[in-house]
Amino acid sequence: MASCTQKSTFLSPILVFLALLLLLSSSVADLSFNFYAGSCPGAEFIVRNTVRSASTTDPSILGKLLRLIFHDCFVQGCDASVLIRGNGTERSDPGNASLGGFTVIESAKNVLEIFCPGIVSCADILVLAARDAVEALGGPVVAVPTGRRDGTVSLAENVRPNIIDTDFTVDKMITVFSSKGLSVQDLVVLSGAHTIGAAHCNTFNSRFKRDPNGNFELIDASLDNNYAQTLMNKCSSSMDPTTTVVNNDPETSSTFDNQYYRNLQAHKGLFQTDSALMEDERTRKIVEILANDEEIFFERWSESFVKMSVMGVRVGEEGEIRRSCSFVN
Question: Which of 314, 307, 308 is CA-nearest to residue 80?
Fold first, then answer.
């Protein structure tokens, strides 16, 4: 694991990288570092403190917060639309049924509304919380620009066409990422989010089949046999595959590190989309680089995370600053 001193060296490349990003889009150009320095100087501290506090009682919340930003940003941009409650919203779609971390975002918002009413967007809180979750688990310290505004539209019909299903091929994943302005490298790097968190059995049990006695049999030859047996034992003992969970990373599930890529090399990728990264030359080469050098992974993660966090942002007069993250004003 890289030391704290090593991690801090990633900030300079990120600042250079973002300086280039800011030239690409007028929307992105309206974001800035320390956006709340004058209007709500304690904003980032409040979010970080809320995340840390929540994780002391429920360590799994950190992985949930990181997953939440993916499901928000990939559907019509990073506008906190996934947080909105109601029939027919993104949050109501079955593809988002297993999401968590909503209460942490709302808790941070509640505190911010006391000290800085109507100032800090839920979209910024969501990005900062995901950033802080990674840092809390030993990952890199990432400087992210803020100034996003909240979206006012949230439709369930927008979810499925924009999120990655666990049985996607590399070509399908590249198509989705490319449509968001993200590269093949971003795909492999951001897949590294699976170094933390957990998944329900029904998200990967298509890699097995049940025999007449109700036991699982392996049908996916890309999985390590011993690892597959562990998964089958865990999932076959449950009557409900939507409630039993398995760690995404079987080795270091509570640490944000590059073990995920070493798992892929050992054929221990939990999802088909994980294993697929080793089966395609375009992605396998990147996996090998990241598996061999954690510092490179942290640097690339910082870059790709920021790129994702500025996708489709609302700024200026667009959207609004919600009073509650669960509802539009």
Answer: 314
